[in-house]
Design a protein that fits this description.
This protein is of the alpha/beta class. The chain has 16 helices and 22 strands. This is Trk system potassium uptake protein TrkA.
Length: about 450
């Protein structure tokens, strides 16, 4: 598959690295040679210096034969123009990064498709959605909903209070039990568990369950003492903070602390119809945090542009008694460190955006894909096609690739768990957990057979 990426910033380079790992035919374009750096020599991709809106540059890059064209430069207008040009030259699918929220309206989808833009991504909106998922369930590190919440995956950090530690999973997750453990992250390893595996203290366990049993998962994982989030302090008033504040549930009280006085004035305008309080100050100032009620705050969210600052601020908030902390960590080199320091939920805009783009490469009906940085894995919602291999045999006989597991499915808008004897039907929405980001190996199971 030929893929062209315009923009060698954080999202573009991260996506190019993912594609290099999959041995895709990838070309990365940027006007500035220093941004391209050593990408061509360090990874299995082509690089090209030039403007993404230059017809000659795009033609030279081979956009006429591209299955996917992705424009992720910092300039929204340039991205959209590049996609329109690429589409007219011959690119089959196009994706543009934007920062105008109104463009995401569902009623505008046909308009953008008509002019040659198949998909729009706003990384800050995607990150804000993940932040709010974390705030709604203070005891969960990660949450992922399938089919509007009919099926739910919960990433939970286990402590000594967990009831199900040190017991073989075959005794815990039988066919009639209301949850499955689809993966375990233990220190630096991700385990796709079998019946003899056990959960241990400090594991990150990924539970698949239905929405009705979320309180049960909370009980058995020993998280009932976690206070529900009502008061939130956000450090940093960037785009992600604004989007997060705008979609926070009404029962939560949100304060944004921002160092830049002019930005505070802008925030007050952007949030004028919202109850969010904007405070001019430094979110690392202990005296300020105390004055603003950190002792009565259940969640602290650090969203500055500096990963180290965010990590340290979350550690300080934890020492001051905050139960839930969320840190924006854009430098992937710091993710493992943040995890080892037990920061809580970690947000990375470029991996969120890259996962959204990556799902467009899958040659099957796949939606709602998420990349789990801490587990080096992806989860995605596949729809089983008529006559696809996944519908021909019980799950235990499918011969699924190593590192892949099916956690559940939604049939006729009803979520249900899957075991080895389950038979997937055409039209089912199926939750797939895939270690080592090998979703491309999964697509063949959900596509219709060419010869019957």
């Amino acid at each position: 598959m030929k893929i062209i990426i315009a923009g060698a910033g954080a999202t573009g380079t991260h996506l190019a690295k993912l594609l290099s790992r999959d041995h895709q035919d990838c070309t990365l374009i940027d006007e500035h040679p220093e941004r391209l750096g050593t990408m061509a020599s360090d990874y299995d991709i082509m690089t090209m210096q030039g403007s993404p809106t230059s017809i000659k540059v795009l033609e030279d890059a081979g956009v006429g034969n591209a299955a996917l064209f992705v424009a992720v430069t910092p300039d929204e207008s340039r991205n959209m123009n590049a996609c329109i040009i690429a589409h007219n030259i011959g690119a089959k699918k196009t994706v543009a990064r934007i920062d105008n929220y109104e463009y995401l309206s569902k009623k505008l989808i046909p308009f953008f498709k008509n002019i040659g833009i198949d998909s729009l991504i706003y990384p800050e909106v995607l990150a804000a959605q993940d932040i709010n998922n974390g705030l709604k369930m203070s005891w969960v590190r990660q949450r992922w909903d399938v089919h509007n919440g009919e099926l739910v995956m919960l990433g939970v950090k286990l402590r000594e209070t967990c009831e199900i530690l040190n017991k073989p999973l075959r005794e815990l997750c039988g066919p009639d039990d209301p949850y499955h453990i689809v993966a375990i992250k233990r220190e630096n390893d991700t385990i796709i568990p079998g019946g003899n595996d056990v959960l241990k203290n400090l594991d990150m366990a990924y539970f698949m369950t239905t929405v009705d049993y979320i309180p049960y998962i909370r009980k058995i994982s020993g998280k009932e003492h976690y206070a529900d989030v009502k008061n939130v302090i956000i450090m940093g008033g960037g785009k992600t903070a604004v989007r997060a504040a705008l979609i926070t549930p009404d029962y939560m009280n949100v304060k944004i602390i921002e160092k830049d006085e002019k930005r505070c004035e802008k925030l007050n305008l952007l949030l004028s119809d919202n109850d969010t309080m904007v405070i001019h100050g430094d979110g690392r100032d202990i005296e300020l945090l105390t004055e603003e009620g950190i002792k009565n705050t259940q969640a602290f969210v650090a969203l500055t542009g500096n990963a180290e600052t965010n990590i340290l601020a979350c550690l300080s908030a934890k020492r001051m008694g905050v139960g839930k902390t969320i840190a924006m960590v854009e430098n992937l080199d710091y993710v493992s460190m943040a995890e080892s320091l037990d920061i809580g939920t970690i947000i990375n805009k470029k991996t969120v955006a890259a996962a959204h783009i990556y799902q467009m490469m899958i040659d099957a009906n796949v939606t709602n894909m998420r990349s789990l940085m801490t587990a080096d894995s992806d989860v995605a919602e596949f729809t089983a096609a008529e006559n696809s291999p996944v519908t021909k045999k019980p799950v235990k006989n499918l011969g699924l690739p190593f590192g892949m597991t099916i956690g559940g499915l939604v049939r006729n808008d009803v979520g249900m768990l899957v075991n080895g004897n389950s038979q997937i039907q055409a039209g089912d929405s199926v939750m797939v957990f895939c270690h080592k980001h090998n979703l491309k190996k999964v697509e063949k199971f959900f596509k219709p057979r060419k010869f019957l």
